[in-house]
């Protein structure tokens, strides 16, 4: 997980767990999310994000 994402606190705890789970999956990984901005900060380019 990217520690320099700038996202801190309990508000982002669930996003952090989801991002870490996605990063640990065999590639390619696609994540459907309504919050592409925060997930991009957390996952970087390791997960393909699709806005829903």
Q: Structurally, how many domains make up the residues?
A: 1
The coarse silhouette is globular
Extended strand count: 2
Helical coverage, percent range: 25-40%
Order of helices and strands: HEHE
CA(first)-CA(last) distance? 23 Å
Classify the beta-strand content into a percent band: 15-25%
Radius of gyration: 10 Å
Q: Flag low-confidence runs.
A: none
User: Which structural class matches the secondary elements?
Assistant: alpha+beta
Largest beta-sheet characterization: 2 strands, parallel
Number of helices: 2
What is the topology, as strand order, of the major beta sheet? 1-2
The whole-number mean of residue pLDDT values reads 88
Describe what this molecule looks like in 3D:
The chain has 52 residues and is an alpha+beta fold. The protein has one domain (10-51). Helices cover 37% and strands 15% of the residues. Strands 1-2 form a two-stranded parallel sheet. The chain starts with 12 loop residues before the first helix and ends with a strand. The mean pLDDT is 88.
